[in-house]
Amino acid sequence: MTTLREAQNYRERVHVWGRVSLALALIMFISYPLVLCIHFDAWPGWWPVFKGLLGVAPIYWTVGIIEALTFGPMLGSGGAYLGFVTGNLTAMKVPAAIRAQQVSKTEANTPEGEVVATIAIAISSIVTTLILFIGMLLLTQLQPLLESPVLAPAFDNILPALFGGLGIVFIAKDWKIALAPITIMLVVFLLFPQLAGAVSVLVPVSALITLGVSRLLYKKGYLD
Fold it and tell me: Please, which residues have CB within 8 angstroms of residue 189's CB and are 6 or more apart in sequence?
């Protein structure tokens, strides 16, 4: 078993390298458009950039804060740093980490579970990169197959299938907690379908509902 001191030393090193990796990632994200602007001497100006950010940034801010608070305890410090740098947490990194912890019979928010989650996310990132690289090389050969009318219905249902598979993982952990937010959000979207564009507002609302219901069920003795 890992001692408390060993766990503290591990997390301290993870935080150091995690901050370095995040700083480098931010520099790389910003450097590409900056280099293009310098090379082509094309500057959009502050106002167009602000208008563009105004439409998308609030959604990313909201989702980013919620993911940090939700996934951080599940992935641990190492998994969280690596997952947020490589991205695609909900669809790929979190399910990979959860499954790896289940197979290895480790618990989240423990040193062992944190190491397992970090390894799972690292392997997931490597596999994703390799698949994308192979797809880029074979894009010309695969294009007729991907654009085939036979496969069109499958591509139209990728998101429902993806989120259905992800949802069952979390619902199966405790369906009593998941029942209230799912029911409320279904009723809201059925009655007001125009709210589909207000995801950035409804996600934190759903999270608050889940926290409130979980607290109530715990106080009533329905949760362990």
Answer: 195, 196
Q: What is the pLDDT of residues 37-46, one digit of tens each?
A: 999 988 888 8
Q: At what angle do helices 158-173 and 175-191 cross, to 10 degrees?
A: 140
CA 30 to chain centre: 21
Tokens of 168: 């069952």
- Nearest-Å Rg of the Cα atoms of the chain is 21
Alpha carbon distance 71, 167 (integer Å): 15
What's the CA gap between 82 and 108, in Å, rounded?
16
Which residue is it, tokens 């139209």? 156
Give Cα separations from 106 to 100, 116, 124, 148 (angstroms).
8, 8, 18, 43
Q: Do residues 179 and 210 make contact, with C-beta atoms less than 8 angstroms apart?
A: no
- Find the length of the chain: 224
What per-residue confidence (pLDDT) applies to 167? 74
The answer to whether the beta carbons of residues 159 and 200 sit under 8 Å apart is no
Q: pTM for the whole thing?
A: 0.69
Tokens representing 190? 């059925």
Q: 222 Cβ partners below 8 Å, 6+ apart? A: 176
Our measurement of the distance from residue 180's CA atom to the centroid of its chain's CA atoms, rounded to an integer in Å, reads 22
